[in-house]
């Protein structure tokens, strides 16, 4: 057994698929299948329960996965420290980014970083902020963008956006002649929300419940432009961040401030306090702070 076997196994455990794991590792599916089979034979246990196309970890698989994460993390720390010591400025950054954030804030940062460090590969994983936070916590990602706040004892971070959510209404809605709208006035409306893996999904529902009603959710999506089009078609209302609202076609929807309460949307870049950051990752954070803002937490 070598560290590569454990890395391959963890990718299979993560995706629950040989095909997706092979794509992530840029190797062939037969190679990763053979590696897992050899690992099972060496350990004398079955690690994966294969039922048709579905794949789940066995009890032994869960034990190996938990221990393998610690081993791989220690190995990555060792190799990163040695790379820095030898002044090797190549590497890979695994960066988690919610889809609605990327186009608004990061093209310029990525462009400048590539100019300065052309040998560094940035792997961008687009997921909702909740999953990004989870993946930074467990070491699947090096750095991620999330909706603040996060746990101070687990993460270091800096904030680069502090906005509020705004209300999107269909053009002929009863509230379009208002200057502001209170959240309680939306109790009888149909809501179009982001999916459950987006922090805003839970935050909006929580604020509605605090205000005194359970929102009636009719659609969920991962795409802000689809959400705004659903509103334009009269299917419901939506609450989106100010930055996103600036991208929305205001000839198709009506956008108003939301009050009592206003719902904050604060974005930050996070990384684990207790995890070694490579030279490339540290330089990425420094450049992002310069370009996006220097607010610290």
UniProtKB/TrEMBL annotation:
Transmembrane segments: none annotated. Coiled coil: none annotated. Keywords: DNA-binding, Transcription, Transcription regulation. The keyword Transcription regulation applies. Residues 1-58 form the HTH lysR-type domain. It comes from the Bacteria. Pfam families: HTH_1, LysR_substrate. InterPro entries: HTH-type_LysR_regulators, LysR_HTH_N, LysR_subst-bd, WH-like_DNA-bd_sf, WH_DNA-bd_sf. GO terms for molecular function: DNA binding. Belongs to the LysR transcriptional regulatory family. NCBIfam families: trans_act_CidR (NF047520). This is DNA-binding transcriptional LysR family regulator. It comes from Paenibacillus sediminis.
